[in-house]
Amino acid sequence: MKLGEKQKLTVVKKVEFGIYLAERPEDETRVLLPKKQAPEDIEIGDELEVFLYKDSKDRLIATVRSPYVSLGKTAALKVLEIGEIGAFLDWGLEKDLFLPYKEMTRKVEPGDVVLVTLYIDKSSRLCASMRNLYDLLRKDSSYRKNDQVTGRIYEFSENFGTFVAVDDQYSAMIPAFEDCSSCQIGDVIEARVTNRKPDGKLDLSIRERAYLQMDADAAKILDALDRYGGTLLFHDKSSPEVIKREVQMSKNAFKRAVGRLYKERKIEITETGIRKL
Predict the structure, then answer these.
(1) What is the pLDDT, as a whole number, of residue 214?
(2) What is the DSSP letter of 36?
């Protein structure tokens, strides 16, 4: 019998409070399906598809319900309450799913919705984890370049960028050069697909297309010039790190916006920076 998975088992015994199921009629290892979930017309020898988990007394038990998440899968679950050693999530079964503090990537509060996977802990109990989701997300979405998508942020990486689960199930990433400093794990964002990789993973952008974004970027540069007395001590030949730190945009986006402002004669470019005209 497989804890945390749906499987077909055989009815081997009927009792007043439910039915017992086993992999084979002769097996001594059996699991109870409570009476309130057992079909009225079920008979010994019939097969039934069930999900196995543990009840509040740590006993293996069957259910005909389908939980919102199973082993090797991911799902966005609602936080119901916080306990001394973790949180409890609604996963569609009578006993709430436990999320230990050590498996959280950020502090959660009741009402939050968090992306998790299911795992079996050292005590052979089913628990939730917000970690190690990358390899579990699907890569078979139908999205293509320039499609608008909705995704949930689940991890940050200084080297790679911001990891996103599109539709809470498809693997995607916002590159590190885009500014996501105002985002946090669990945020649901609207983004545009900029690339679909050969393996099916998606690259995303929370910026508009270049020609639409340029106006906003130009306005941001003018605002920065106003805040610094009309002069910025860096320009389009400065390092990407300096540009990102000062105006929160990539070097390419900065160069496009500076070029527009220069053509419109709103700025001049000096050896040391940019000056507003």
Answers:
(1) 66
(2) G
